[in-house]
Amino acid sequence: MINIQNLSFHYKKKSPLFNDFSLEVESGRIVGLLGKNGAGKSTLLHLISGLIQPKSGKINVNGFVPFDRNPNYLADIYMVPEEFAFPSISISTYVKAFSPLYPNFDHHKLYDFFSEFELQPSSSLNKLSHGQRKKFLIAFALSTNCKMLVFDEPTNGLDIPSKSQFRKILVSSVTEEQLVIISTHQVKDIDTVIDKVVVIENGKIIYQENIDEITQKLYFDLVPSLTGVENVLYHEQCPLGQKIIVPAAGGNESSIDLELLFNAIINKTI
Amino acid sequence: MNSNKFFNVSRFYLLLRNDLLINYKKYLLTIAGGFILGFIFIYMYMPSQMYSDANYKLDGSRYRYFFAIYLVGLGAFVGSAFSELSSKIKISNYLLIPGSTFEKYLCQFVIRAVVGTAIFLFIFWVDTHIARIAVLSHLKNNLGQLAGPEKYNYIEKFRYSMLLVKSNYPTITYWRSFDGIGVVLVIFSIGMFLFSVKIFFRKLGLIKTGISLVAALYLLMVSMICFSYLFYPETKGFNTADINYLLSNGYNNNDIFLYSIGYLAPLFLLPLGYFKLKEKEL
Fold first, then answer.
1. Using one digit for the tens of pLDDT, what is the confidence trace for A39-59?
2. pLDDT tier at A191 (50, 70, 90 boundaries)?
3. How far apart are CA B3 and CA B102, in angstroms?
4. What is the torsional sign of CA A211, A217, A220, A221?
5. The pLDDT of residue B165
6. How far is the alpha carbon of A101 from chain B, nearest alpha carbon, in Å?
7. Looking at residue B178, what is its pLDDT?
8. Domain coordinates of chain B in residue numbers?
9. Do A254 and A220 contact (CB within 8 A), yes or no?
10. Which residues of B touch A81 (CB under 8 A)?
11. Is the pLDDT of residue A9 over 90?
């Protein structure tokens, strides 16, 4: 569980990024943290991970203050950063070196993910492509079974089949005790896996809703034209016509189009 | 207070194991490289011919010179501690490794300073002995013939006690008791400074260390000038009052001053590095 209260943060000689920011998220969720470039998504993930210290306010994650970097906290959080570097060792050596530091590490799960992602334990990490290294890191992160998993742009650099594999293994792996935060620009990549959306802009939460509540309130549709369509909250032209968001009526539910929703939120029509 | 938060034996073992698994090739190459380069260096600077002049004998003073050069190598190894902190991408990985700051600090200290120094001392000892044996096998006397048994005295067998004995200076036959400890502590201080370079400076650590050392010496000099003006008004220009008096135990006041700095610096640098690491941010 994450509990952030009245958080303020700014980088040296820069204007405040977060000012009186509060957020509460329960465990057992996969949260999509969305926002434009520079909105503060990565900074928020770094604050939650304990890599940077808030200027004021409180952050509590699973009963720990992240910046204390309590070893028990670090053993229960895993972050997949947007950019990463590996030592010049093989996958199996990396697993041998790092897995014992995570008490709940599941080796069977890891080797299942390796099969899914077609990774060879004998491969040298630095000889893999960026996408393959990212797949390894995702597989390792999920195998740690940490209560808190943080993914910063996890689908960047993944090819199309790997993106769907990522969604598949994420959904199959995460348990009710875990909390997963995924920060991404590529909202389409995660729209079928998240169950809560948090949108931040200029260091403030401008939207947060559970997916089931969104689908109860909003209806996403594709229509040939806007003629005759009433109460359109947001629309975007596409090759097949218009993608629209309208209020859900009569218990009708649709699949969520996260990109459309995100654009609607950013354009302040929702 | 929960001590597990600061130190746990099994976690510390896992951190050590983690470091060794990741860096073992680098360490083995460093040891092999140090051993070979050290041997070549000592071998090249050992005499190839015996001279009647005793000054050409290879004794403690020459070994001290070899040892000082070796120390530069050890300094470079110790200075490569916390290499993950040199890159922003690697810092997050390092800071998020499940272990307390104390364990991470101790882990680097044990590997770089304790084990590194022990291996360094062993390599130096082996190199000096092998180089001596190699040189003795073809050492010639002043007639150009292969030297006889006297060659074993011409190139003395290295002992660590030689480093603390000023055998070349007849007026001082042994170091005063604190001199040896003082030298060791000054070396330790410089080592600790190098050990924590990466914690303080992410980039160009050695250059910045050099600049800060010069700055520290400059500040020391300025403060000495200020004190001179304060307590000895006759001081002129940038001179310091040269007050030198001998104490009853053979030391003078300047020895005590320099040794105090040498003794106290490691006590200050080690905790400073730890707290700096604890507060380290991305």
1. 899 999 999 999 999 999 999
2. confident
3. 11
4. positive
5. 58
6. 6
7. 60
8. 3-278
9. yes
10. 89, 92-93
11. yes
Residue with tokens 């790997």: A162
Under a CB-based contact definition with an 8 Å cutoff, are residues A114 and A169 in contact? no
The secondary element (H helix, E strand) that includes residue B41 is: helix B9-45
Tell if the CB–CB gap between B14 and A101 is shorter than 8 Å.
yes
Does residue A70 have a pLDDT over 50? Answer: yes
| Angle value at C-alpha B249, between B248 and B251, nearest 5 degrees | 95
List the single range of A105-109, A165-169, B141-145, B224-228 with lowest mean pLDDT: B141-145
Structural domains in chain A, CATH included, are 2-202 (3.40.50.300), 213-266 (no CATH)
What is the least distance, in Å, from the CA of B271 to any CA of chain A?
18
pLDDT over 90 for what percent of chain A? 81
**Chain A residues within 8 A (CB-CB) of chain B?**
46, 49-53, 69-72, 74-75, 77-79, 81, 83-85, 87-89, 93-94, 96-98, 100-102
Q: Name the CA radius of gyration of chain B, rounded.
A: 23
Q: Which helix (H) or strand (E) holds B218?
A: helix B205-231
DSSP state of B83: G
Residue of B12, B92, B277, B279 to mutate for A, most A C-beta atoms under 10 A: B92
Strand A56-61 to A2-9 pairing: antiparallel
Find where tokens 């470079």 sit: B76
For A180, the 3-state DSSP assignment is strand
Q: What is the predicted pLDDT for the residue at A144?
A: 97
Which residues in A lie closer than 8 A to residue B5 (C-beta atoms)?
70-72
Whether residue B281 and residue A53 make contact (CB cut-off 8 A), yes or no, is: yes
**B34 to chain A nearest CA, in Å?**
22
Q: Based on the number of CB atoms within 10 Å of its own CB, is B136 exposed (0-12), middle (13-18) or buried (19 or more)?
A: middle
For the stretch B76-119, pLDDT in tens is: 899 889 988 888 889 999 999 999 999 999 999 999 999 999 99
**pLDDT under 70 in chain B at which residues?**
1-2, 52-56, 165-180, 248-249, 266
- Which residues from chain A sit within 8 angstroms of residue B21, using beta carbons? 89, 93, 96-97
User: Is B28 at the interface with chain A, CB within 8 A?
Assistant: no
Measured between beta carbons, the chain A residues lying within 8 angstroms of B14 are 100-101
Per the rule left: phi > 0, alpha: psi between -120 and 50, beta: everything else, B174 is: beta
What's the pLDDT score for residue B172? 45
B11 in contact with A, Cβ within 8 Å: yes
What value of ipTM does the predicted structure carry?
0.91
Instruction: Mark yes or no for CB contact B11/A71 under 8 Å.
Output: yes
- The residue in chain A having the minimum alpha-carbon distance to the alpha carbon of residue B99 is A71
Contact A69 B103 (CB under 8 A): no
